[in-house]
Amino acid sequence: MKKILVTGALGQIGSELVSKLRELYGSSNVIGSDIRKEGDVVEQGPFEIIDVTDEKRLYEVAKEYKVDTVMHLAALLSATAEKNPKLAWDINMGGLVNALEVARELDLQFFTPSSIGAFGPTTPKDGTPQDTLQRPTTMYGVNKVSGELLCDYYCQRFGVDTRGVRYPGLISYVAPPGGGTTDYAVEIYYEAIKNKAYTSYIGEGTYMDMMYMPDALNAIVQLMEADPSKLEHRNAFNISAISAAPEDFAKAIRKHIPEFELSYDVDPVRQKIADSWPNSIDSSAAAKEWGFKAEYDLDKMTKEMLEKISEKSN
Ligand code: NAD
Ligand code: AKB
């Protein structure tokens, strides 16, 4: 039986990942942690306050609960990181190296997500290969590429069982997104239900990779349980389900809400970040090495997002 410590567990991914892991491995075997304390993750199983920049605290909690796995989610996302780049470096890189050190010292399996943000304007934009040019132009991207390399280093140098994916923009209805460039793709559904209209801060024709949260969570479980001898890449597997621009979301929403209106008021900061990211990445290495396959396309996800948000707002 696994015993897992999750950092940043109250965020968009952690809020759903912890529940899923508790269903799979038992509530008492999944320890949520964050710098704040609220909601279901705290109430439904063990929870500890951990600031990931405090390596001693991270070590003590991991040792106290005798965990065998760390899933390290605590980070600042792209738009927030661009507002405060030094803080992003301290949390994203400082937190990651601390978590890797704890994994090395206690011999733990390790997962952390990279992002499509690890690519930059000189990366091939369409069918972005698994192994390609990575010269990102954001602090978030610099952190993500450095993090990918650091995880590879801890695996090769110290034998830590590090694994990871490059997530696209994640779409979900449980917890709100935490300050990313792709957040519009969540907001558009809430606004569709509330106002039958949305003003997008990302411009028309801007394609980015996206994925519905259930596929993102299945990918973590599948990768962590994969036979290590089959993994050539280990960290930073490209995975994607959907490549879409704002007007594609609008079209999918209009199948359920015909009067839905989309307008634009482009935010130059987030637009610049989006323009530096791929249009669509190639997930074939993940499919080949550990069987990644997304279940949700844009239409299937849209139907479920609108249903779930309607239920929540009633
Ligand atoms: P989020 O912003 O929703 O949540 C991050 C959590 O980290 C928050 O609950 C926050 O309180 C916590 N946190 C912040 N500073 C902390 C600190 N010093 N110590 C401990 N906790 C701290 O983020 P998310 O969307 O859940 O993302 C989790 C990971 O997945 C990040 O590494 C992110 O880069 C990556 N990722 C997310 C997406 C996405 O679309 N959500 C896409 C690609 C990659
Ligand atoms: C962001 O937009 O910052 C995240 C990501 C794709 O990493 N959603």
Question: How many strand elements?
Answer: 16
Main sheet strand line-up: 3-2-1-4-5-8
- In terms of structural class, how would the helical and strand content be classed? alpha/beta
Q: Biggest β-sheet, characterized?
A: 6 strands, parallel
Our Rg estimate from Cα atoms comes to 19 Å
Number of helices: 12
Beta-strand proportion: 15-25%
Characterization of this structure:
The protein is 45% helix and 17% strand. The chain has 314 residues and is of the alpha/beta class. The chain has a 6-stranded parallel sheet. Strands 6-9-13 form a 3-stranded parallel sheet. β2, α2 and β3 form a beta-alpha-beta unit. α3 (55-64) runs parallel beside α5 and α9 (246-254) packs across α12 (298-313). The protein is globular. The chain binds nicotinamide-adenine-dinucleotide and 2-amino-3-ketobutyric acid. 2-amino-3-ketobutyric acid (AKB) is lined by residues 77-78, 115-117, 140, 168-169, 180-182.
Per-chain topology:
Elements: E1 4-7, H1 14-25, E2 30-34, H2 40-43, E3 47-49, H3 55-64, E4 69-72, H4 78-83, H5 85-106, E5 109-111, E6 114-115, E7 126-128, H6 139-158, E8 162-163, E9 165-167, E10 169-171, H7 184-195, E11 197-200, E12 208-212, H8 213-225, E13 237-238, E14 242-244, H9 246-254, E15 261-264, H10 268-276, E16 280-281, H11 284-290, H12 298-313
Parallel strand pairs: 1-2, 1-4, 2-3, 4-5, 5-8, 6-9, 7-16, 9-13, 10-12, 11-15
Antiparallel strand pairs: 12-14
Helix pairs in contact: 3-5, 5-6, 7-9, 7-12, 9-12
